[in-house]
Each structure stands twice: as structure tokens, then as C-alpha cells.
Design goal:
- The structure is a single chain.
- The protein is built from one helix and six strands, in the order ββββαββ.
- It is mainly beta.
- A five-stranded mixed beta barrel has the order 1-3-4-6-5.
- A hairpin with a 2-residue loop joins strand 5 and strand 6.
- It is globular and about 35 Å long.
């Protein structure tokens, strides 16, 4: 079983966008307080773009995974859900 985490008062760095043919996925670069930015993707969460944009705080439920793209491996958060506090 993969552990599932929840963080409160997370903010997007200002680059939130949707991906996919029907804008069905959500791509964000999140941080909490003074932490570094983390790449995050939410499959099927494209409708929640309004929750995360404009650097408004939100709560996020996610798992941590390795993302491999073009031979580069990095940590990525896979969002399960986001909500306004």
C-alpha cells in the first residue's frame, strides 16, 4: 500500500494549468511555507483549477512518486484531491 498524505495551506507558485485534450488533468508547482516547490499532477482534477490558481491557499491529498521524463528522475506529488479550507 502506498502512503497517502495531506498538507494544509499549500499554494501554487503561479503556474497552475490544465493538461489533456479536455483539460481533464491539473498541473501545479506547490509549496508550503518556506519549502521548495514540488511538481504535482492531479489526474482527473482539471475542474479544480479555480481552487489552486492565484496563489490562494488550499489543502491537498497526495502520494509521493518518482517521475521519469526524458531520462531524468525526480520526485512528484500525485494529487488525489484538493479543496479550499
Amino acid at each position: 500500500m502506498t502512503p497517502v498524505f495531506m498538507s494544509e495551506n499549500v499554494v501554487d507558485s503561479g503556474y497552475a494549468k490544465t493538461l489533456g485534450n479536455d483539460a481533464e488533468h491539473l498541473k501545479v508547482f506547490v509549496k508550503q511555507n518556506d519549502s521548495p516547490n514540488f511538481n504535482a499532477i492531479g489526474f482527473g482534477l482539471g475542474k479544480k483549477l479555480d481552487i489552486v490558481k492565484n496563489k490562494q491557499p488550499f489543502d491537498a491529498v497526495y502520494i509521493v512518486e518518482e517521475n521519469e521524463w526524458n531520462g531524468k528522475v525526480s520526485l512528484q506529488l500525485q494529487l488525489r484531491d484538493v479543496r479550499v479550507k
